[in-house]
Amino acid sequence: MTLWLMAGLLFTPLAWAVLTLLTDFSRGRLVSWAGILVQVLVSLGLWLAVARDGGFYYGLGGWDAPLGIELRVDGLAVTFVLLTAVVAGACGLHAGAYIDPDKPWHRYFWPLFWFLWSGLNAVWLGGDLFNLYVGLELISLSAVGLVALGGQAGALRASLRYLLAALLGSLAYLLGVALIYGQFGTLSIAGVATWLSDHPVPSGSGMALALMIAGLALKTALFPLHRWLPPAHGIAKSPVSALLSALVVKASFYIAARLWLELGQPIGSLAAAQLIGLLGSAAVVWGSWLACRQQRLKQVVAYSSVAQIGYLFLLFPLTFSVSETVSLQAQQGMTLQVISHALAKAAMFLAAGNLILSVGSNRVDALAGVSRFLPFSLFSFGLAGVSLMSLPPSGGFAAKWLLLQASLGSGQWWWVLVLLAGGLLSAAYIFRIYRASFLESSGTDQFFHPSRSLEVIPLILAMLALGLGLASDQVLTVMALPFEGEGAP
Amino acid sequence: MTAPLLYALAGALLCGLGLFGLLCLSHLLRKLLAFNVMGSGVFLVMVGLPQHQGGPDPVPQALVLTGIVVAIAATALAVVLIRRYYHLSGLTTLDAEPTSREGGQE
After folding, report:
1. Looking at residue A442, what is its pLDDT?
2. A234: contact with B, CB 8 A cutoff
3. How far B34 CA sits from the closest chain A CA (Å)?
4. What pLDDT sits at residue B53?
5. Cβ–Cβ of A168/B22 closer than 8 Å?
6. What integer best gives the mean pLDDT of chain A?
7. Residues A144-164, mean pLDDT to the nearest whole number
């Protein structure tokens, strides 16, 4: 049974990518909706199977490591697979109605969308460093293509900046992988960790880890390497921005986090952990501050992503040289933050897309009066904002509560200040949008009404982000499931 | 100095050159070439450094083949984007601002 589920999970996105390459946008949409249905069902089935029986190793095509590709199917990975299915599925449905099918170059949306999806699944499940690299590149190249889909000079400029940053990040990561292989003779993260537990740490392996994490931080847009992100996420089509902010930046962060959790304790140092935490805090404050000052609606949301990504990097100091319980709290907080930010930010970008479609301008002050005409989208925007501001009972609140407990438990109280400042600043930029939308200016009363389906999708995502806080216990138990390490590590 | 170390150092040197080019050159095609130089450096480290019982190790050679395919795909995508960008804006660098600025003040 799990064999079929795995086959379905890995095969569908690639098959659909090739299939949709052969059709135009409208027919590709029908084909893709069927594919989204299959993918959501398969992900749900796999999640249930792992929740019942625990995780396992899966050798692709019956070939085991080191020659074959070995996938690590554990609770955390299937949770992210399911999250990808939900968010990407919602973005796919939204894009089908949002993107103009008459422009000929838009037919490439579906193939890129499916390649992106397959890359994401490869990263969540990948167990060795090199296949993670291939997955990352698949994601970056399709994401750059999706940004360039706008077709204007500005979109190409943003996508070129994005491409150069992503390629530099990948090469730094790959150089780290080469050094790790040269040192340890294995590519599996678990293999390196096992080797390190029996041997003394060889000198110079810190550099390999530093290179890999620096490359991944560039791809995740950690402050001060964040400058490529706002133009790219701001100028892309709204469903694309939602995909990029919700899932793509999380993929590189996920690899960095797994590297740190396995290798950080033996190879890393306290100074490095604190430095990364400090950069994350700077991202929270600086990103939120810039979000308050942007003139364009989608730029506000994009800078808010820079800030929210900053929280994720608090994982590094909060899991280094701390007790088992604190480390577990920090990991759970990080996971909830990834999930709640993915849902809330996707909802926010999709709702922002609807608002822009309705007023015909991407400026914040053009929103004046929109509250009378588009309360539904504005409501979704606000609900997503509740999760970003981390008010109870949202998923964002549960995440930050766990991070808060972890910082107090480890005696690193200074991160609490960051959590508080970040919450207040995010309230500031969200209320700014609200203020603009309730102003009654002398402007026109000409508002375009997007179709109902465009408005329902962000609402559902925002509701999920809000409800995550109530269901966080169930989500966290699946991630902590026992893992049967039957394959060769 | 042993042969593997020589390869690794040459690779590191190429990486440094490529990195310098990627950051300091402004013409987009030059940036792309610098990326390729840097990529070759990484591949050289990857093939040269690991040794398997005194001889070359086959696993990284297989990996580098995949890496080259990925690098070619990335280069092709970049060339297409640069060409289209040039057609639309007449610019070959990212330094000069096009008429409307997207990012807002940073």
Report:
1. 55
2. yes
3. 10
4. 67
5. yes
6. 88
7. 91
B14 touches chain A (CB under 8 A): no
In a domain, A133, yes or no: no
Is the separation of the CB atoms in B31 and B22 below 8 Å? yes
Of the candidates A443, A475, A185, the one whose C-alpha atom is nearest the C-alpha of residue A342 is: A475
Q: Is the pTM of this model over 0.90?
A: yes
A163, A147 Cβ separation under 8 angstroms: no
Alpha-carbon gap, residue A115 to A143, rounded angstroms = 9
Domains in chain B (CATH in brackets) are 3-89 (1.10.287)
Any idea what the Cα angle at residue A115 is, between residues A110 and A121, rounded to 5°? 125
DSSP bridge partners of A72: A57
CB contact under 8 A, A175 and B45: yes
Across A150-176, b (16+ Cβ under 10 Å) vs e yields beebbbbbbbbbbbbbbbbbbbbbbbb
* Structural domain contains residue A214: no
Domain count, chain A: 1
Nearest Cα neighbor of A226 from A274, A146, A151, A285 is A285
Q: Which domain holds residue A313?
A: 270-489
| pLDDT-above-70 percentage for chain A | 96
Burial B45-63 (b: 16+ CB within 10 A, else e): bbbbbbeeeeeebebbeeb
Residue in B19, B102, B106 nearest the CB of A154:
B102
Written as six digits, the tokens of A144 are 């750059």
Asked if A141 lies within 8 A of B74 by C-beta distance, the reply is yes
pLDDT at B103: 41
What count of residues does chain B have? 106
Tell me how far apart the alpha carbons of residues A216 and A210 are, in angstroms, rounded to a whole number: 10
Residue A32 inside a domain? The answer is no
Which range of A25-29, A267-271, B26-30 scores highest in mean pLDDT? It is: B26-30
- Evaluate whether A263 touches A197 at the Cβ level (below 8 Å): no
Predicted pLDDT of residue B100: 44
Please list every residue in chain A whose beta carbon sits closer than 8 Å to the beta carbon of residue B98. 153-154, 157
Beta strands A70-73 and B51-52 are: unpaired
The nearest alpha carbon in chain B to A168 belongs to: B35
pLDDT tens digits for range A170-226: 999 999 999 998 888 888 888 888 888 888 888 778 889 999 999 999 999 998 898
**B42–A231: do the CB atoms touch at under 8 Å?**
no
Q: Which helix (H) or strand (E) holds A381?
A: helix A375-388
Q: Is A182 left (phi over 0), alpha (psi -120 to 50) or beta?
A: alpha
Tell me the percentage of chain A whose pLDDT exceeds 90.
46
pLDDT of residue A120: 95
Residue A379 lies in a domain: yes
CA closest to B103 among chain A residues: A231
Please state the ipTM of this predicted complex: 0.90
Task: Give A414-456 as a DSSP string.
Answer: HHHHHHHHHHHHHHHHHHHHHHHHH---S---------HHHHH
